[in-house]
Amino acid sequence: MAGANGAWGFNVERGSGFEPPISSGRSSFRPGIRLFLWVVSVLECCIDIADDILKGKAMLTLAESEKIVKDCIRDATGFSKVIRAEHKLSEVGVIDNDVLDAVNEEIATNPEKGVPSKHHDIDPAALPTSNDKTVAETRDIVHDKAVELSKTTKMALIRLQRSARTAKRTPRKRG
Amino acid sequence: MRSVFLCSILLLLVRGTLVCADKVEASITNVTISGKEGRSVLDLGFSTSIADDDTAALQKAQAALIRVFDVTAGMSMGSVRVDSASGGTLSLSVPLLNEGDVISIVILGLTFGGKEAKKPLNVIASVPRAGQKLEETQSTSGPLSPGEWGGAEGKDDANVYLATQINAAIDADPNYSIDAKLEIPFRPFPIGKRIQKSGLTFSTEISDAPKADPDSMKFGTYWRTFVWDCGPRCGTRTWFRRLQWRNAFQSESNKYFSNTNVVWPTTMRLISKTWGSSTEFGIRPYIGNELGLNINSPLPELENSMVDRPLIGLNTLLLVPTELGVLKSLSWETLYERRWPLRNELVLEENDDGSLKSTDFGTTPRDYVKNSVTAGFGPYFGLTFSYEYGQLPPSFKLIDHAFKVEITFKAKRTAGD
Question: ipTM score here?
Answer without folding.
Answer: 0.84
